[in-house]
Amino acid sequence: MPEKTPSPRRAAYLRTVRREKRRVRIWQIVLVVGLFSVWELSCRLGLSDGFLVSSPSRMAATVWSLCRSGELWHHAAVSIGETVLGFTAGTVLGTAAAVGMWWSKTAARILDPYLVVLNALPKTALGPIFIVWMGAGMGAIVTMTLAISLIVTILSMYTGFRTTESEKIRLMRTLGADKKQILWLLVFPANCPTLFSTLKVNVGLSWVGVIMGEFLVSRAGLGYLIVYGSQVFNMDLVMASVLVLGLAAVGMYLLVLRAEAFLNHLWGVRA
Q1: Distance (Å, rounded) from C-alpha 237 to C-alpha 230?
Q2: What is the distance between the alpha carbons of residues 253 and 205, in angstroms, rounded to a whole number?
Q3: Which one-letter DSSP state was computed for residue 223?
């Protein structure tokens, strides 16, 4: 079937939305360029101490040097791999635990106070315990990442499951649906926005866990570069590593946005 031509009012609305998106994107770029320009200018004029805060030009030179030597690719790959492992494990296990709590109200009542306590507990305080349990390596880093993202995923997804419209659940029960059908046909699809919101939060939390773990035990990774640079008072290396870390985190966040947009478009077509 040929696609319907949007009405003039709809077309005008879509043009307005596109213009607003372009305006926001332009201002975002202007802010970043302006920030780096002021930073560079202040260092060149002597208003800021380049030894303490580095400068964009020196950061770029450091990144280029690390790229040419191959060190950047190695350290970035280690950190990204650890982040993806922790991010995936936290999301899958957290969602599965939330499903179990929704399925069994008894389990939810038992686990709820423990989840509240664990959510309030600073996860970095558990770092030494994870090192003893998992050894001073990738296992401890991934475990710390998992610990940080897991509880947030459980609480977010379970809250979404629990607040699914009760009228629709009663309607499905009236039509003869069992608990499994209600879960897969109503509760889980209704909470896909909650899932993607949780994924966006978990991107940042996973990077926090990985960098904290690398601060403690790693011999490779962006966190290791940051610690090493601070120990030898090489702020160019520290700031360049932070820049690469930020770009990697933004890349993961954009991938989540792309996945969300694709699924929304797919469901929109089906609808």
Answers
A1: 8
A2: 12
A3: H
Contact (CB, 8 A) for 166 and 113? no
**Owner of token pair 């950047």:** 72
125: which DSSP letter?
G
CA 114 – CA 110 distance, rounded (Å):
8
Please give the mean pLDDT across all residues of the chain. Answer: 85
* Residue whose structure tokens are 């009663």: 170
DSSP designation for 6: P
pLDDT digits (tens, 9 = 90+) for 29-61: 999 899 989 988 888 888 877 778 888 888 888
Give SS3 for 45: coil
Domain spans, the chain: 1-48, 56-270
- What is the distance between the alpha carbons of residues 203 and 183, in angstroms, rounded to a whole number? 26
Cβ pair 84, 141 in contact under 8 A:
no
Q: Is 102 helix (H, G, I), strand (E, B) or coil?
A: helix
Q: What is the pLDDT of residues 189-212, one digit of tens each?
A: 888 888 888 899 889 888 988 888
C-alpha triplet 257, 86, 223: angle, nearest 5°: 95
Which pLDDT band, with edges at 50, 70 and 90, does 71 fall under? Answer: confident
CATH of 56-270, one of 1.10.357.10, 3.40.50.300, 2.40.50.100, 1.10.3720.10: 1.10.3720.10
